[in-house]
Amino acid sequence: MENYFAHVVIIGGGASGLVCGIACAGKDSKRKIMILEKEQRVGKKLLATGNGRCNLTNLNASLTNYHGSFKKGVEYLIGEIPPKDVLDFFEKIGLAWKEDEEGRVYPYSNQASSVLDVLRLALDRLGVEEKCGCAVKSVRKNGKYFNVECDGFTVKAENVVVCTGGKASQKLGSDGSGLKFLKELGHTVMPLYPSLVPVSVKNPYMKSLKGIRCFGRVTLSDERGQKLREETGEIQFSEKALSGICVFNLSSMASKTKNPRIYLNLFPEWDFTSLVDMLFQRKKIFADNNLEEFFTGLINKRIGFVILKDVLGKNLSQKIKELSKDDIKRIANILIKWEFVCVPNMDFSSAQVTKGGIKGDEIDPFTMESKKVKGLYICGEAVDVDGDCGGYNLQFAFSSGILAGRTV
Ligand SMILES: Cc1cc2nc3c(=O)[nH]c(=O)nc-3n(C[C@H](O)[C@H](O)[C@H](O)COP(=O)(O)OP(=O)(O)OC[C@H]3O[C@@H](n4cnc5c(N)ncnc54)[C@H](O)[C@@H]3O)c2cc1C
């Protein structure tokens, strides 16, 4: 068995680990810093972010965009290393960027590979050693030093930074193994749930809605009808699930909730009475047409067919003038509160993020050092923090990695 020594070992060459290596080497170039990555190359997940464009941060990031037990740490990081500072960090290593109208930031090239390339070049310039194909099996503290064990070799280290991510999208590297050895070191792992993932629903007519995208408000409620969270935006229908950013943002809460429901409001700007009035107007305009024309010019026709035929059981060849007052009210009710029954989803493979991870109280919010094991730091998605969709998760990964790198 070979043995190595490093002043700092960073476990995981993802978003937080790579910036941590740069921040750490920038502080003291004489120390030996080693990144151990289980995949054959670092930054595999980074390349897949933002549909290959990498939404690297969000200039509007605030505490409300984050969930989990590390509130104090998130608050400190937003003040100490806000998105602007993360962008300064990237500018200094050569990345040009641009912002969209919602504060989301992308590399100017629109290529996630630009982000990874500048990180790798900076690490190389600073002499940080990358060792790929090395899955860390265990971390033990032996007196002042850590023993970090991989297949075939051990690294003795003064400090260890765990940047192994959560369990989401295992094919891109993070498989929860980091959380396992953090647990063995005495940490508490808060329950894990997939987040930013499509929400599976079991309504029988999903097949007919497949492929439709529409605008609306989505409300997540529990089995007693208690509203848990509401979001507005583009909703996408697939054969078995609802998705789109607004649905993603409800997904971890849906996984955690018993018998959740999602309600769609396809007319969030309208109240019930004005919607009913508008539908009566349509009844007049299209009086002699068949029911299949009732939604023409208003919403996606396929959605209209499903509401009339599958939800209300109407015959589409019926004349629109035959619609009763009660029918119009029922249609309005569905348009503003269409119920979808969610199916529990614990599938991490299609999730972008993991909800849960190392309990926030066990990490020093000003340094990212573990309160349980001196000299051990924990960053990024391994911590019990999950952000909304829109650059917030990388912002947390980068800012926590930079903070740990500056401190260690
Ligand atoms: C498809 C997809 C798109 C996304 N798009 C965005 C986006 O546009 N904007 C945004 O903000 N967020 C996005 N995210 C979320 C974001 O990528 C993550 O939150 C972020 O990468 C977490 O950083 P991390 O450093 O904690 O973990 P990761 O980036 O997951 O890195 C962890 C690294 O540790 C390695 N590792 C794990 N276990 C071990 C071990 N035992 N030994 C050695 N190495 C190990 C892994 O191989 C991996 O390289 C996306 C996620 C996915 C899956």
Structural commentary:
With 408 residues, the chain is of the alpha+beta class. It folds into 2 domains: 2-194 and 348-407, FAD/NAD(P)-binding domain; 198-346, no CATH class. It has helices at 15-27, 44-48, 71-80, 83-92, 112-125, 177-184, 206-209, 245-256, 272-285, 301-311, 325-336, 392-407; strands spanning 2-11, 33-36, 57-58, 66-68, 97-99, 104-107, 129-131, 136-142, 145-150, 153-162, 189-195, 199-200, 213-221, 227-237, 241-243, 261-265, 338-341, 353-358, 376-378, 385-387. Strands 1, 2, 7, 8, 9, 10 and 19 form a 7-stranded mixed sheet that branches. The protein has a 6-stranded antiparallel sheet with strand order 12-15-14-13-16-17. Strands 3-6-5 form a 3-stranded antiparallel sheet. β5 and β6 (104-107) form a beta hairpin. α1 (15-27) packs parallel to α5 (112-125), α1 (15-27) packs parallel to α12 (392-407) and α9 (272-285) crosses α11. It is elongated, with a radius of gyration of 25 Å. The two termini are 28 Å apart. The mean pLDDT is 96. Bound molecules: flavin-adenine dinucleotide (FAD). Flavin-adenine dinucleotide binds next to α1, α2, α6 and α12.
